[in-house]
Amino acid sequence: MIKNARLPLILSALVALSSCATKPELPAPENAPAERDEQRDSQDRKEGNASSTIRLLFAGDIMAHEENFVPGRFDRIWRHVSDKISAADLAFANIESPVMDAKGWRAYPTFNMHTDYVEAAIKAGFDVFSLANNHTNDQYLKGIQSTRDFFSSREGIWAAGLRKAAGEGPTYQIVEKDVADGGKWRILFVAFTELLNRPDYAEYVDYYQSTAEKRRELKGKLAKIKAESGCDIFVISVHTDEPEYILRVTENHRKFFRELVNECGADIVWANHPHVAKEWEQISADDGRDAFIMYANGNTISGQRRDPQFKAPATNRDYTGEGIFMEVTLEKKDDGKKSSVAIKDSSASLVTVMIADDGRYVLRFLDDELLDTLDKAEYLKWRDYLFERKRIMESYIPALKKERP
Fold first, then answer.
1. What is the mean pLDDT of the chain?
2. In 10 A of CB 277, how many CB atoms?
3. Sign of CA dihedral 61, 65, 68, 69
């Protein structure tokens, strides 16, 4: 009896289901916000109304002292900071040494590093490198050629600053980058040094002394390269001729970097050499463009703070243990007739080199989270020291107080 009573209900349901095929379809649900944005961006590109953003990260000097290369396991240098590096669309660093496996490791005063050291930095996320600095020719012509050959052989890696033949230059790279929002970017990258520690084979390096005559020559060449490049962004790396370990920005370089912006069309000037971090600024070029200048991002990894002054953290050499990761986000808009690029955002992260219990030098973000971790682990000597180092850095670069990794 129960089964017979349910039969009409079952039949009714079957009839209702079969009749659905003849009914008009209901409107599709509205797309999710992310899908709508993607469709709108696609339509904008078709109509010549596109916009796109790219995020660039700029570090400082990658050095290899004995304290860095003797322990091996170079991936451990980067494991606490690699997420931020790899999250950038392009990440820049300065390799402060020749790279030559055919010769043994060398530290100061004539450096040489091996390719596995650089490969660890690449694995961490760096993909654009400056190779022009005062140590570039430490291993003479073979060192220059070996370094150039290594970077030239790496797919998806770009480097500038070394010449294939004597006397050409300045060399440059055109980096073409597709970003997540569908945009395509063309970045012109040049790297030169204002000083070398020795004159040997200087003609194989993008080396331009800091004289008025050499600067005029260089600016003329850079302006020509920019005009012919068709680039969206022009990035210039400068290894500066100035005293090491000095915190202030020289008026000489402040003036020169503005000339690189106004006379050569640079959008970003990224300087290094003194092994300490300095200030940065966003400026307006004479033609109305946004431009960004970094006067020095300090050491990214080195062994220069091998003897931290725990009781005197303001000691001059202790500044070599901190550096800056600077992120610059740029936006490109295209109305179908012309495109324009503006700086959308910038943010700095303070990084520090810590010496682990096993003697290994590792890179950490110097922030409240690190200090809290050290406090909980009762590494009180390092906690107190880095607390003071953070305070000191924020004192002479006040913008760091507003920045967090």
1. 90
2. 28
3. positive
Does residue 52 surpass a pLDDT of 70? yes
In a domain, 13, yes or no: no
User: Which tokens in the block code for residue 97?
Assistant: 């040494």
To the question of pTM greater than 0.85 for the whole model, the response is: yes
Torsions phi, psi for 163 (to 5 deg): -100, 145
Tokens of 293: 């200048």
The band of 15, judged by pLDDT with boundaries at 50, 70 and 90, is: very low
Is the pLDDT at 18 greater than 50? The verdict is: no
pLDDT at 186: 98
Query: How far is it, in rounded angstroms, from Cα 327 to Cα 141?
Result: 35
Provide the pLDDT for residue 30.
43
- Residues 166-186 have a mean pLDDT of 95
DSSP assignment of 281-309: EEEE-TTS-EEEEES-BBEEE-SS-SS--
Place of tokens 């920045």: 403
| Cα–Cα distance measured from residue 101 to residue 112, given in angstroms and rounded to the nearest whole number | 9
Query: Looking at residue 206, which CATH number applies to its domain?
Result: 3.60.21.10
Has residue 324 got a pLDDT over 70? yes
How far apart are the C-alpha atoms of 36 and 51, rounded to whole Å?
15
| Closest alpha carbon to 96 in 353, 303, 235 | 303
Q: Is position 392 within any domain? A: no
Q: Which residue's structure tokens are 């970094």?
A: 294
Strand pairing of 322-334 and 128-130? unpaired
For the chain, the domain total comes to 1
Q: Is 120 helix (H, G, I), strand (E, B) or coil?
A: helix
By residue range, what is the domain housing residue 130? 50-368
What's the pLDDT score for residue 11?
Answer: 34
Residue 328 domain flag: yes
Q: What is the pLDDT of residue 38?
A: 56
Q: Does residue 112 lie in a domain region?
A: yes
Distance of CA 137 to the CA centre of its chain: 24
Q: Residue 111: helix, strand or coil by DSSP? A: coil
Widest Cα–Cα separation across the chain: 108
